[in-house]
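Weekly puzzle thread! Below is a chain. First person to post its structure in token form gets bragging rights.
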Amino acid sequence: MGAGPSNLALMVALEDAESGLAEQTLMVEQHAEVQWQRGMLIPWAQSQVSFVKDLATPRNPRSRFTFLNYLHEQGRMDEFVNLGTFHPYRLEISNYFRWAASNLSRVRSRYNTRCETIAPIVGEDGTVTGWSARFGDGSTVTARDVVFGIGRDAHVPAVFRDLPESRLIHSTRFLDRVEELRDNGWRRPVVVGGAQSAAEMFASVQDYVPGSSPTIIMRSIGFDYYQTSSFTNELYYSSFVDEFHSAPPQQRERMNAEMRTTNYAGLAPYLLDSLYRDQYLQRLVGDERFRIVTTTDITSARVDGDEVVLTTFDRKTERKSEVRCDVVLLGTGFDQRPPGLVRSAVEGAGARDATVDRNYRVELGEDDRAGIYLHGLNEDTHGISDSLLSVLAQRATEISADMVKRRSND
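Winning reply:
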């Protein structure tokens, strides 16, 4: 389920292999085409992961699905090399993923197809033998294994849940809806959050809505870089997953807590520098169009006439105040629970929760033939790299190998 990078990596691994699974596989995507981070495909935004960690290279550098082969086929190898970077623009990575999906020749694909339910198929002995997927158009498909690569649900903090949908835009819908600001004459957006997505919306809304005066409100003391080094980056190696998975739960929790600043609590250097230079120049010429509010909590949100009113609490001064705006842009990340579709499938099979084994398969009954595999939802057991591009190719190898092994044991 889903045609994001995780499942695409698995699809190209199946295409490259001779296991026969490719012809038995269906990839289902709810949108009309493959697009990575569709809500945040801002033209200047860059990937923070090296292009070498693409869908195939760490698994098989000779695969026809590598990013370099994509550049070669598009006639852009020289231009990309001349950029002198390991970090392509996000838009180019998205185009690469779409190219890879279009070059699948044995795996079948269905687009514009939304899965509504996944229900277990139970044999006479009470074991789960497969799954029945029901789609929005009423059709159904049965399968022995289901692989979820649908990502997490957007997180909307409780304080904003009473605002009308028209006045609330999560980062996952930013590009879909940013024109609403211009069409409605809204020039006073407030961005909530202090990490990469929030900062990207804050920086780009001035381009999409000329003349706007955005405010960004964050709990932290200010924007900061991702806290990375060559040493901490080793924890993003696919080979580190074994070490992490074998560690005691309390040590895994501690490692993830220490690693949060390397991915979730900072900005890419190019964006941080650009924002500070913009702030400096605005102060220099006396035209401060945007405002950065730090160490501040939002305690309530309501609509008053044609305005959204946010009540804020400044933790430095311990004072409350109001911020009046037109619309709220949320850079608040994602719900840490598995998506509802995953939870319902796991619960339907009688499992306690969506805990996976080392090969990313949900721990169902020992005798169950069917399997559920999860991409990108396993940070607690497989480390912080699980939700990123860093381990795509190796994870695809491990999942496909587990599928083949289980079939050989039948």
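Puzzle host: Confirmed. Bonus trivia for everyone else. The chain has a mean pLDDT of 93.
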